[in-house]
Amino acid sequence: MEDNQESPPTANSKTSLQPPTRAKLNWECALSVWWSFMWRLTIYLVLGGLPIKLIAGVPSGGRLFNAHVVEMIAQYVLWLAVSIIALKQALASHWERLPGLPNNGQSAKTG
User: Fold this and answer.
1) pTM tops 0.90
2) With the CA atoms of 96, 100, 106 and 110 taken in that order, what torsion angle do they form, in degrees rounded to the nearest 10?
3) Other beta carbons less than 10 A from residue 83's beta carbon
């Protein structure tokens, strides 16, 4: 029988149990991602919120009981979905510029 057990890592070995160091994110890159996220979010919410406003308010003339509650819930659900999409797109468009992230020749825009 062969003994295939490896010795535990020591403080001097390359497989140390120390956490990896993180690259610092500069303000220029952070603001670029933030701005990309915010303009996408604003456009998507305006385009998605108008139909909700029209559906909830116009047919009832604003007199439908609890129409504003249904509208608020629909807008909250819309905000959650749209914010995830906008954040994914903003990060994907700036992925190559973000420090400390694996690139491996693949872009985050796929998938």
Assistant:
1) no
2) -70
3) 15
